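Feature request, filed as a ticket because there's no other form

It would be nice if the structure record came with a short human-readable summary line next to the tokens. Right now we just get the raw output. Example of a typical job, pasted below so the devs can see what we mean:
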Amino acid sequence: MDLSLILAMALMNKIKNLANNLKARYIIFSNGAFIYDNFKDEILNIEYIDHNEAKKVLRPS
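Raw output as currently delivered:
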């Protein structure tokens, strides 16, 4: 069974180092919106938030 790292924050360089040390195959961020195959060094899935939806959430008060 391959080890997967599932994380909330995207600190890719540090996480890749951790995944390499643990020999983890997959790195998963944001509930699966970003899935990375650490062995093949490729992105398997990436989803983006619609720009208008992001503006609603990130708009300064």
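Something like this underneath would help us a lot:
The mean pLDDT is 82.
Helices lie at 12-22, 51-58.
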